[in-house]
């Protein structure tokens, strides 16, 4: 017996949980048959359902639970986004089903009994039990072995269940002892790149529901682009005229025609089967939604801006939303790489800064050259092996401070500033910064959020622990609003470049243009665009923007942010035309110690600075 067979024979929909109470009929939404029966297919271990709202996925989950309680008893776990959601699902969805479905009434104890077999979040039955947990409760996820795991709305799960890590992976571990385990992941998608359900669907065989046209018989996937409606004489939209138009013959389908065609559809996979069946559906397939209502929702969302449009794309189309601050495609950046002599400075470079990211086994450093208008070039990528526990690693970083880079015009430039992250092995970073001096080295701490009066603030004196001894005001720390500089970096990456013909005619790259050398590798590029700007909701329901990782490694982006902060601290955002001219004159005079052309009130004294020959006094306008 399949789950759809069981539901057609036994399941009754409750009046408080369904708009159509009474006997369940899978034929009411034919696409549900393939989804439910995939659970009873012995060849499928994982089933992924990425869909819009209003397609009946919640009732399908209930059918899966009811089938296993009645026909194939097993330890079952249902995971909801929060513990409160788990209680709500138990009381408002499962309990009415267990009460009104006759075959389940004798399988589960009366909730008023005192034997403890029917609690809100844990219910026992012959041959198994049902546990309902919240993804934010690591103790519930790791409590007991599970054969059937049902994860609902996985895109609303927290990034980590306490300190235990990803809640989906934590729950998966409960199933490893069962050879016949089933894992079901269900959700409406959220943001592209940060969506769990999208990532799982892309790893599946990616099944979509194909529907034959009632007129020409051509099978097709129902997409929003084929929904069309008329406009009145004044240009006003008339959503009441919304029809689905066949992608082949353009025949318009009324709602009744569309529902009849969907009843004759079937699932078709777009990728090879690898043990995971993936299903995707949008609201156009729903027998409970009219196109007029969808058209009205679309027009309202379009008028409301990105926030409301995102809701329509996620909940009506069942697709991920791409934020306006999305990361550029790394392959496009790969194709836009430029040629200049390896590790040399291009013609427009006037000063250098570096960003250093401290990792467990290494320190990664990116050196950026800066020119007028904050035009920038990546000129070096250095990986110092050893990590913060290795003195040789810190010595190599110290040596980097006195290194120079040859300039295309002749001469060479050293580092003006090196910003180093203090987020990992803070005391070791402070100790090194104190040793080399705070003139050239800038310890930084990244903070999230866009509501900052300045992208960089400080310096502030912080206590440092040196050799086990606490030094009050032992280090100078700058606070960097990383979100601001990440957004700026992505904006600079999207700037259009002048063509070869335009360059020949005298065109120059726009201010902020970011240039990447041809020696940079694809892994570095993937790290540079390794985060995504997404819109999330606070606990109070307010919308906020935050950066989320698309991949585990993002050192290139972090180093870019630190190097950009170093340029800000040096004063590049505030230099006048005269000050930029001073840098150009210094470059023409040949190699020397590059330094900010003037001392700004926001910058600290640099009397502690150092170079290979010690700090030297500058000519007129000296900043020392």
Percent range of helical residues: 25-40%
Radius of gyration over all CA atoms, rounded: 31 Å
CATH architecture of the largest domain: 2-Layer Sandwich
Strand portion: 25-35%
Backbone shape: globular
The mean pLDDT is 84
Give the biggest sheet.
Answer: 10 strands, mixed
- As for the CATH topology of the largest domain, it is Nucleotidyltransferase, domain 5
GO molecular function, one term: ATP hydrolysis activity
Pfam families: GpA_ATPase, GpA_nuclease
Protein name: Phage terminase large subunit family protein
Organism: Shimia litoralis
Structure report:
By secondary structure, this protein is an alpha/beta fold. The protein has 2 domains: 3-226 and 257-287, Rossmann fold (3-Layer(aba) Sandwich), CATH 3.40.50.300; 330-588, 2-Layer Sandwich (Nucleotidyltransferase, domain 5), CATH 3.30.420. It is 29% helix and 26% strand. It contains 19 helices and 26 strands. The strands form 5 sheets. Strands 3, 4, 5, 6, 7, 8, 9, 10, 14 and 15 form a 10-stranded mixed beta sheet that branches. The relative contact order is 0.09.
Concise description?
Residues 18-267 form the Phage terminase large subunit GpA ATPase domain. By secondary structure, the protein is α/β, with parallel strands linked by helices. Helices cover 29% and strands 26% of the residues.
């Amino acid at each position: 017996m399949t789950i759809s067979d069981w539901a057609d024979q036994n399941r009754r929909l409750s009046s408080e949980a369904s708009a159509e109470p009474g006997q369940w009929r899978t034929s009411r939404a034919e696409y549900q048959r393939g989804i439910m029966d995939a659970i009873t297919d012995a060849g499928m271990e994982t089933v992924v359902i990425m869909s819009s709202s209003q397609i009946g996925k919640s009732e399908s989950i209930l059918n899966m639970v009811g089938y296993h309680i009645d026909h194939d008893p097993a330890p079952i776990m249902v995971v909801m986004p929060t513990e409160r959601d788990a209680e709500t699902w138990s009381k408002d969805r499962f309990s009415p089903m267990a009460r009104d479905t006759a075959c389940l009434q004798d399988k589960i104890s009366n909730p008023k009994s005192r034997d403890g077999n029917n609690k809100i979040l844990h219910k026992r039955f012959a041959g198994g039990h049902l546990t309902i947990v919240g993804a934010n409760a690591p103790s519930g996820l790791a409590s007991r072995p599970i054969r059937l795991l049902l994860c609902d709305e996985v895109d609303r799960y927290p990034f980590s269940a306490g300190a235990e890590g990803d809640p989906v992976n934590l729950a998966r571990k409960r199933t490893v002892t069962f050879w016949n385990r089933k894992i079901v992941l269900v959700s409406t998608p959220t943001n592209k790149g940060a969506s769990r359900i999208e990532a799982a669907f892309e790893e599946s065989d990616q099944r979509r529901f194909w529907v034959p046209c009632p007129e020409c018989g051509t099978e097709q996937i129902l997409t929003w682009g084929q929904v069309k409606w008329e406009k009145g004489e004044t240009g006003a939209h008339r959503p009441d005229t919304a029809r689905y138009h066949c992608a082949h013959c353009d025949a318009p389908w009324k709602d009744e025609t569309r529902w009849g065609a969907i009843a004759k559809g079937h699932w078709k996979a777009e990728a090879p089967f690898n043990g995971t069946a993936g299903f995707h559906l949008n609201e156009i397939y729903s027998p409970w939604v009219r196109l007029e209502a969808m058209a009205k929702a679309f027009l309202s969302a379009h008028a409301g801006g990105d926030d409301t449009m995102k809701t329509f794309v996620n909940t009506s189309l069942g697709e991920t939303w791409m934020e306006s601050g999305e990361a550029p495609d790394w392959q496009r950046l790969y194709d836009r790489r430029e040629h200049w002599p390896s590790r040399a400075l291009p013609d427009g470079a006037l000063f250098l800064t570096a960003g250093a990211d401290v990792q467990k086994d290494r320190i990664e450093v990116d050196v950026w050259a800066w020119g007028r208008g904050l035009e920038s070039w990546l000129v070096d990528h250095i990986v110092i092996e050893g990590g913060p526990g290795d003195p040789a690693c810190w010595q190599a970083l110290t040596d980097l401070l006195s290194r120079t880079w040859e300039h295309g015009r002749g001469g060479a430039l050293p580092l003006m500033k090196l910003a180093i992250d203090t987020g990992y092995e803070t005391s070791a970073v402070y100790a090194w910064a104190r040793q080399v001096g705070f003139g050239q080295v800038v310890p930084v701490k990244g903070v999230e959020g866009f509501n900052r009066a300045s992208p960089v603030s400080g310096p502030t004196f912080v206590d440092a622990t040196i050799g086990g001894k606490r030094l009050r005001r032992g280090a100078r720390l700058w606070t960097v609003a990383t979100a601001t500089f990440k957004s700026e970096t992505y904006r600079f990456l999207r700037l259009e470049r002048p063509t070869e013909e335009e360059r020949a005619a005298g065109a120059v790259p726009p201010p902020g243009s970011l240039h990447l050398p041809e020696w940079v590798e694809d892994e570095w590029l993937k790290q540079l665009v390794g985060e995504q700007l997404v819109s999330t909701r606070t606990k109070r329901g307010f919308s906020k923007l935050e950066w989320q990782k698309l991949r585990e490694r993002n050192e290139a982006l972090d180093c870019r942010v630190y190097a950009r902060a170093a340029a800000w601290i040096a004063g590049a955002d505030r230099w006048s035309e005269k000050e930029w001219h001073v840098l150009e004159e210094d470059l023409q005079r040949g190699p020397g110690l590059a330094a900010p052309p003037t001392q700004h009130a926001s910058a600290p004294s640099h009397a502690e600075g150092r170079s290979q020959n010690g700090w030297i006094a500058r000519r007129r306008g000296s900043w020392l």
